[in-house]
Amino acid sequence: MLLVAQLINGLQLGSIYALIALGYSMVYGIVKLLNFAHGDIIMVGGYIALFSLTFGQHPLLAAALTVAGCTVLAIVIEKLAYTPLRFAPRLSLLITAIGVSILLQNLAQYFFSASGRSFPGHLMIPHGSVSLGGVMVSYTSVITIVTSLVSMAALTMLVKHTKLGKAMRAVSEDQDAARLMGVNVNSVITFTFAVGAALAGIGALLYSVRFPLIFPTVGAMLGLKAFVAAVFGGIGSIPGAMLGGYAIGLLEVLVTAVGLSRWVDGVVFMVLICVLMVRPTGIMGRNMMEKV
Amino acid sequence: MGRRDTKTPFVPERDAYKAPVMECVNLGIDFGGLTAVNDFCITIGPTEICGLIGPNGAGKTTIFNLLTKVYQPTRGSVYLNGVDTKNLNSEKANRAGLARTFQNIRLFKNMTVMENVLVGLHNKTEYGLGEAILRMPAYWRAEKIARARTLELLEIFDMQGIHGHKAGSLPYGSQRRLEIVRALATGPTVLLLDEPAAGMNPAETEELMENILKINKVFKIAIVLIEHDMKLVMGICEGIGVLNYGKLIAKGTPAEIQKNPLVIEAYLGKAEGEGDA
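YS: structure for the whole thing
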């Protein structure tokens, strides 16, 4: 029973990592950018949810505002910071992403102060639990797991079965060829950032409910963990990001369960190093032979 | 501008030249100090098949890159259906009616045959994002039409049976054919084929020739092709331009080109006896 409870716990955490890892992976797949500002978008999403809930908004409205806010923020960042560097060396893009990350953290510190604020999670998802085959599962767990599964199913549909999804895959494979086939590459890239950020917005809500403390650097470690998940699964691969997210979530809970909770972060990064040594492209990553 | 003087069609007597579908006037590009293409002028009629030949490095693919706006020309202009393409980028040039294939195949290798063609149909498939997410009837209808159209297009090369295969797993010849289908899907008025017969055996080349003629007839579009296979070029092209060191050294009908001493010296001289089509 304890094992099942821990498993659900791990799935809950893994769902959140998976949602965020998807944003990293999709953006990397399409512009080859490790968007280190992704984690900080989640932080901003956390603040949006926090303020809309404290000002007495309906949880669904608060959720919608959070997702919309994250999406708009990502589009603005993409247009202002990344689009001018479309043809610049990739390193410039990476450093810009780190710069955007630091900027967002400092802006948050300036406006909302460096100290943490507690998140009224019970306003979002009420306390309580249901019994599933004798195991008590909290509403938060159920809603987190279900929401992320639904989001990921929707994303898969979008990417596999719509023309925008096909355009996304085409651009990620060969940007110039896609452009020559009449695909508007710029809008496809913006759309990818927007979808990644919308998923991050959902992730921000679910994360804040589970760890109800928001502070300006809350996205840093979370973003880094999700990045590890994306690399673990194979960066650029959508199913890989999902798999990586769940793997890291389960691993963290497992490490905590055996009593090594202080070692959680260390173990996660050690796994990253091991994966990179054995299989640099990640579990489901594409073969990169040609690129060398 | 002096456009009149430079307008020297391949085959002057053809009616088609009353309204050329594509016109290049003094087109040229420099890379640093190197002049890759200079003074390139051609006029192409609405349903004409033209060949562009010349030794390796003569600038043939560079011209395709100029036409499709992969490179912006240093000099001169390209008119597409009478409109100057100066301010267009690649994607707008495609929407204006230019589609191409690539010398080194550039399919979306991890996508299926059908998906590759569907990307070509991107701008022809009309539904909004909202409709896609909510799975509205308009989405289903548009996707169904696009799929049916894809199969229709694949039928040209008898490839409808392998629409579920990954593009990267196809044999070389089929990949070349798929590139043509994908380009056709974008609905061009001018189709640019960059060495369509490269790597094909004589039987396959023969079949390709028939198919190019069929595409020309069924879709009523102009086709410009770069090719080293003289049998193909002499067999299906109405007009041929010969390029050497970035300059058009001759243009005319296949018969004229074969007799041209400049051409023989620059190019055909090495392959004498091969060009009797």
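YS: worth flagging: Chain A is about 75% helix and 5% strand.
IM: good catch. Also Strands of chain A lie at 117-118, 129-132, 135-138, 213-214.
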